[in-house]
Amino acid sequence: MTRKDPTFQDEGMSALILYIFFRNSTILLMQTNLKYNPFYFQWICVLMPFKYRNRQVSVIAHRGGGELFKENTLSAFRSVQDMGVDAVECDVQVTKDGKLAVIHDADLRRVAGINSRVDELTGNEIQKVKLLNNETIPMLEDVFHQVSIPLVIELKSIETVKSLSSMFLENRNLQDRCFIISFFHEALYIMKRQFPGLKCGSLLAGFPLDPVTMVRQCGCDTISLYFEGITREYVDKCHMGGIYVGVWSPNEKTHILDSLNAGVDAIGSDRPDLVISLIRESE
User: Fold this and answer.
1) Rounded to an integer, what distance in angstroms lies between the CA atom of residue 140 and that of residue 103?
2) What SS3 state is found at 79?
3) Domains of the chain (ranges plus CATH)?
4) Residue from 140, 208, 123 nearest 178 by CA
5) Separation of alpha carbons 139 and 73, rounded Å
6) Distances (CA, A) of 79 to 38, 83, 177, 189, 205
7) Pairing state of beta strands 55-61 and 244-248?
């Protein structure tokens, strides 16, 4: 499949993935007891991703906008949702009793000043921990209930697979609201084998020689790269193979513009406000 093939959407990730996200999220919220937001249903049917130079780009709040708010907290997720981002990215670690805690690090030292690992504590114990800003660590199920826009969930270990699979088996509609990413490509492969319709993306900090084959091997159609060094040529190479391209953590103006000008389909930034501002300035 080539970039010129009419079956390949120039709009990138937004056309194929986010439309499905929003459509299925609407159905899910109406069918479950998740928080109902009347305004959400008014705009969800007409919302389109942002456009940069006539090309659609999805804006994702990395860790809920980690440079604007306390990362991976419910207040951060609600704030970037109000800001108008396309999706929220969060990290999950597995607890001692198999729950999924929304936290980036494997231990609590940086965020709470506690010398304990997440997998040494139960879900109930984790929820009692006070972060340095006096908030608490949410469970993934809490995020599903309080955030209505799509979730990009990073699996921080292979051990998260069992817990996430159990959650999806209990409520299969939840997978329609998710886009799963991970550096653990085996985790993505297992999840795709179990849930073929699940949307997944391979995380990388480098630029493999054959990104298309690497991404396809774990059942994905999206590659998510560290922004530094991204080029138009590399993005075009991925697009020619039918692979969507996202970048993570460009947080400064020049880095964001470099990523936009490289033609990426999605930007996951700790400064989603700046991404949105730069995109709007180009209109």
Assistant:
1) 10
2) helix
3) 13-92+141-281 (3.20.20.190)
4) 140
5) 10
6) 18, 6, 19, 33, 28
7) unpaired
What pTM does this model have?
Answer: 0.84
User: Is there a contact between 72 and 88 (Cβ–Cβ < 8 Å)?
Assistant: no
Determine contact, residues 222/201, Cβ cutoff 8 Å. Answer: yes
CB 143 within 8 A of CB 80: no
Question: Given the DSSP bridges, would you call strands 87-94 and 244-248 parallel, antiparallel or unpaired?
Answer: unpaired
Residue 153 Cα distances to 159, 171, 184, 210, 241, angstroms: 14, 16, 13, 25, 25
CA-based R_g, the chain, Å: 18
> pLDDT tens digits for 61-102?
999 999 999 999 999 999 999 999 999 999 999 999 999 999
Cβ neighbors of 36 (< 8 A, separation 6 or more) are 29
